[in-house]
Amino acid sequence: xxxxxxxxxxxxxxxxxxxxxxxxxxxxGSSQEFQNVMEVKAKTWEKxxxxxVELTGVITAIxxxxxxxxxxxxxQLEEGTKTDGLAEDQKVRVKGRIIGYxxxxxxxxxxxxxxxxx
Length: 118
Prior knowledge:
alpha/beta, globular
């Protein structure tokens, strides 16, 4: 019985990570449209978990790990994704998982982001 509980606990704790393709897509469109939708029920977006959005907007900042789009969304790029071909003021379509809202910076944070179109 103890072995069975140990094996069950192991599989529960070390579940395989979901990819963006396995998660529910909740919105596709421009970053401005999503911002309007998000403002109506902001807390709902971060509480529901594993929600994916695909947004089109303009890159406003670039760092080694991600990009900011329209100064309101920070996409932390998926491991191994390079930002070499990206530039500020470039239009981009990005898909990412919502992880929360940063009140201090006023940005919605997303991770596992992939660039769909440059």
